Amino acid sequence: MNKPLVGALLSALLLGAGVAPAAAATTTELSTPEVRAKAVTFAGTVALSNCSGSVVRAPSSQPGDPALVLSNGHCLETGFPGPGEVLLNRSSTRSFTLLNAAGSGVGTLRASKIAYGTMTDTDVSLYQLTRTYAQIESSYGVKALELDSAHPVKGTAITVASGYWKRTYTCAVDGFAYRLKEGAWTWKDSVRYTSACQTVGGTSGSPVIDNATGKVVAVNNTGNEDGQRCTDNNPCEVDENGTVTVRKGINYAQQTYGIVPCIGTGNQIDLNRAGCALPRP
Q1: What is the pTM of this model?
Q2: How far apart are alpha carbons 107 and 45 in whole angstroms?
């Protein structure tokens, strides 16, 4: 995983090791002219205590619905969910720092519950907040990011926007891993970045944004750090025939279009809705 960071001490250690500081200016890493399609800001992103995230809405979400925050399953305050484990509607009071377009913290949001969380098939967490989208926009002038309901496309110019580091990584969708295995976990149809997106610890949970539409197409979660095969922090790709490929230095995300059918009336997670394929408890 793009490791979650624990507390200020570890942050300081990482800074000493050369990781970009939280106040670092937005990083632009362009490999092709197509990547220049559109600038992505930090508006709607959030910083967790150990990871990144974003305030998101489904196409059907209403202004009066309680808002949702998207991050990774491995960023949950309860620890890494085990293989096959799914958290649903579990009480939480976790707080999030909301950022504006410039990357400045403008307020604190608080969860009422972990609406959904898992590391099985995907690596995702969804928190339901105590405030509605309308209340957040009225108080802070920040709108939620919309989840794209369509599968992303190879070659799409994307930006990974980290609220934790206040840093962006710009590249393109290089392709998709049929299965991505890391330690005890297996994820399906993962997004593989081109090499320009060199994400680091603390970027876990960052929204992956389509530069052309501004919509969220995936959630950043891992990368192969050392060239090892299928170990923690060294995911490997496995194709339909079982062939394993290791890509040292390449990073990945989990698609989010499959979340959209699972969001029902009032922004409630309903795993029984038509088209919802998220793992169940």
Answers
A1: 0.89
A2: 12
